[in-house]
Here is the input.
Amino acid sequence: MSSSSSAIKKGAIISYVAIFLNIVITFFYTPWMIRQIGVSDYGLYNLIISFISYFIMDFGLHQAVQRFIAKYRAENDEDKVAKMVAITTKVYVLIDAVIFLVLFVLYFFISNIFTGLTPDEIETLKGLYIIAGIFSVLNFVFKPMSGAMMAYEYFVEERTLEVVNKVGLVLIVCVALYFGAGVYSLVLINGAVTLFVSIAKYVVFKYKSKLQIQWSYFDKGDLKSIFSFSVWTFTISIAQRLRVTLVPAILGIVSNSQEIAIFSLAMSIEGMIITISGALNGLFLPKVSRMAVEGDREKITTLMIRVGRLQLHVWGLIFMGFIIFGTVFLNLWVGNDFTDSYFVIIFIAVASLVAQTQSVAMDLVFAENEIRKTATLTFVTALIGIAIAFPLAKFFGAIGAAAGSGFGLCLYQILLNIFYRNKLELGIARFFKECHGRILPLQVLLCVLSIFLARLIGLHSWIDLIVGGAIYSIVFIIVSYLFLFNKEEKSHILLIKNVIHK
Here is the structure.
């Protein structure tokens, strides 16, 4: 196995560990933290983090850094890499200066912006704003490092530091709260740990890459190339956020707050499902960039099938499990008022199924700099989905909004696969035959049988749910191993180990 393959395998394993930790923290740590600092301070904590996050955006530059460095490394042009890191860092410093000025001015208008808060809450918020703002500005300069580490295939180091960030933050906060610290300490620790990890990424990258960054370099042509790429990745991000941020607004206009809560909860859970199945996303861009230089589309299609099958195995286990146990889980977790969230999740998750298995194709889009066309598709289909969601939400609430948004996602996937086949010359028919065609039918059959058995037995408590979920997982894995895994996948207990061959 090549060093690249080994790095991808280890990076993927660490990604799944990070996702598992994130889920555990969400379900166990968050409620405990709320009890320790109080609902009001917890609300202020989340308010200030989310408010500042609107201004700490890199406008797609992270993806640009990763794409161009991977491209130049595939072409064995280390001199160009050194220049690219220098110029992108300067751009980040410039943007950071603008962010600082914006945040500085906004500080004096906090009481005018958040008029619903009490005077005491405003004073607390101002203190939190100063702490979070300072650390956000300091941390922003180091943002290029994640993209650079991924382009250099330092997957293990990058993902390990992300785990350190998450676990370290939780451990330090737990100790601080145990000894009576309040919300100010929470924000301070959050900023300090994130900054420490960002600096660590820079140190690791410099030490391992031995790259001599040419800080004096500047070229308008390169700057134009970076922004012409990043503006379209930023467009994709905006379009994807529209699906999540505009639908609650639509529900607020034509429906009620209960439907907004139902949709919001569904998006949180659906986000976890997408995160789990997409743990491999971004790991293959350097490899795909090398393949793109070689021009062998057959190899890229084969890679796409191998990765897609693995992602579909994981997606099937998680999503089919939710279909079986989702209503019971929601009723036990948040009560009967959120039963409709179950159907919202199914609409959105099914609509995004294909996308979750085609990360390699999107990596090729980045490698070939075809981002403009896919960004246009993303934006247009997002608007179409929102336009359909509006009337449906009026009559069917959150479920109608999800159906409209899901239609937009389905349309996007259809058009995108036509683009993959015609423009990128990928073997899309072969992909669907060897990936979805050979896996989904048995997964669906197993899901239907499990639903029947679950209803026959009856699940009414957390114990029932945990035992039922464990039995389902074991059966699913055994059936998958016996009937769905191919010879290559069966040859390793950890499927990731031999997914990629150079």
In short: Residues 132 and 187 are 6 Å apart (CA to CA). DSSP finds 20 helices and no strands in the chain. The two ends are 8 Å apart (CA to CA).
